[in-house]
Design brief:
Blueprint (H helix, E strand, L loop, with lengths): L7 H11 L29 H12 L9 E2 L12 H7 L2 H4 L11 H18 L3 E2 L6 H16 L3 E5 L4 H11 L5 E5 L9 H7 L4 E7 L10 H10 L3 E6 L18 E5 L15 E5 L12 E5 L5 E5 L4 H4 L14 H37 L16 E5 L4 H9 L3 E2 L2 E2 L10 E5 L6 H14 L1
Parallel strand pairs: 1-12, 3-4, 3-5, 5-6, 6-7
Antiparallel strand pairs: 2-8, 7-8, 9-10, 11-14, 13-14
């Protein structure tokens, strides 16, 4: 049954009031040849039981990363989310609030965002964090725009080892305002080539952007990169696609970065068929007025009671278009709430445990694959939970063959790096089981 709230009488009355005889007349400005007048070629409507049965059949075709040996990573990670996260975010109090602008009726939402900011600032090692952004890629682009505002420069140097899709988003967002983007090459270690970087930065460079762990899994020398950027008056922006790595690695802020952004998907959001995700963004106090997004502050009311309100940024700031520090109008409230509950639930020690298990599984996987004579490891840099494997055959073909064995065997780098056709990016998390590692090892021995 179609849901149309207006009766035929309602429609006739409205058309009469606006002086139109037919609904079709409302679309008269659309050229005749573009108008679809025949019924769409769609199957007939199903009853609810029939529809549920069909959806169940279609859903059964999906490969589930939680029940399959999965070694996929490359920016989306299969970490465990405590059941408490979904239980709490599905409470009506957390589902219904839309906007935190009316502080007098949104104290719960504002407090959660304040706690979120506090945890993100601590995690990334900075003085303050904003109230979240769309995802890691757009957060990276916003950081670049922020660096351009601060330095009044247009040059952006981004590591070739940063996520290729993040770089594509960066190009789409910051090129129209006039940014000049350069790619910084990587060395044989799989890390940014620091000697070349020194020759690329100058007094027109606004920022150097580096991902660590990078797209190949390598852990970059952030402090050295920051020193190179600062030597020419540029900022250092660090991107983290899997922030569970910060359970073991020193934070970007502690290594001299000026801005850090991250993808919060690992923190209780699950894979969710590709989204929605969550951007994390933190920086130094001195850059407060240049920071995009929202910021919730703690204050007191007229009676001295603690309360929360948006600070330093108003809605009007974000809709003034070219005069705004940011056009981001979301605080990704539900996703930020999930991440807050996740971080509060597992705590500092829990995050360290997640990171340790993810690293241990990666060490086990590397050791197992190292026993296969035809496999090599092209990069020598230390890694966290992802690394590149070089196969004797095209990695895309290997992935296809592994899929037929019910193994999600990794990501073929040829999708973004054409000169690396045999390189396969593999990833482990705390959910990777020793049996999965053995399954992948045996499967590769069979197909290679």
């Amino acid at each position: 049954m179609r849901y149309i709230p207006h009766t035929s009488d309602d429609i006739r009355e409205m058309l009469a009031d606006i002086g139109t005889a037919r609904v079709e007349d409302l679309f008269s400005t659309i050229p005749e040849k573009l108008q679809v007048k025949e019924p769409l070629n769609l199957p007939k409507a199903l009853s609810e039981p029939e529809l549920m049965a069909e959806l169940t059949r279609l859903a059964a075709k999906n490969t589930n990363a939680t029940t399959t040996a999965s070694f996929l990573g490359a920016g989306a990670y299969n970490h465990y989310s405590p059941t408490l996260v979904n239980t709490l975010i599905q409470r009506s109090e957390l589902l219904t609030p839309y906007t935190p602008y009316q502080a007098e009726i949104a104290q719960g939402t504002l407090q959660i965002i304040f706690e979120f900011q506090t945890m993100v600032a601590n995690l990334l090692g900075f003085d303050l964090a904003n109230a979240s952004m769309y995802d890691g890629s757009t957060a990276m682009a916003e950081a670049a725009l922020m660096a351009m505002r601060i330095t009044k420069r247009k040059g952006i140097v981004v590591a070739h080892t940063a996520h290729p899709e993040y770089r594509a988003v960066l190009d789409n967002i910051i090129t129209p305002p006039g940014a000049k983007i350069q790619l910084a090459a990587f060395a044989s270690t799989g890390l940014m080539d620091l000697d070349q970087l020194k020759s690329q930065v100058n007094n027109t460079t606004a920022a150097v952007i580096v991902q660590s762990p990078n797209f190949f899994g390598g852990i970059e020398s952030i402090s050295k990169i920051a020193d190179i950027a600062h030597a020419v008056g540029a900022l250092c922006i660090v991107v983290v696609t899997d922030p569970t790595s910060l359970g073991l690695l020193k934070s970007p802020g502690a290594q001299g970065a000026d801005i850090a952004v991250a993808e919060g998907q690992s923190f209780g959001l699950g894979l969710q068929f590709g989204g929605p995700n969550l951007g994390l963004f933190a920086t130094k106090n001195e850059f407060l007025r240049m920071m995009p997004g929202r910021l919730v502050g703690e204050t007191t009311d007229a009676e001295g009671r603690r309360g929360y309100a948006l600070a330093f940024a108003t809605r009007e700031q974000h809709i003034r278009r070219e005069k705004a520090t940011s056009n981001i109008c979301t605080n990704q409230a539900l996703c930020a709430t999930a991440a807050t509950i996740y971080m509060a639930t597992i705590g500092k020690q829990g995050l360290q445990q997640v990171a340790t298990l993810s690293l241990e599984r990666a060490v086990q996987l590397r050791k197992r694959l190292g026993k296969i004579k035809s496999i090599s490891f092209p990069f020598s840099a230390p890694t966290y939970n992802e690394f590149v494997v070089r196969l004797p055959i095209a990695a895309a073909d290997a992935v296809h063959k592994l899929t037929s064995k019910n193994i999600l065997g990794g990501v073929a780098l040829s999708r973004w790096y054409a000169n690396q056709p045999n390189d396969l990016l593999v990833c482990t998390t705390e959910l990777t089981q020793p049996g999965h590692i053995d399954d992948l090892g045996r499967a590769l021995e069979e197909i290679l």
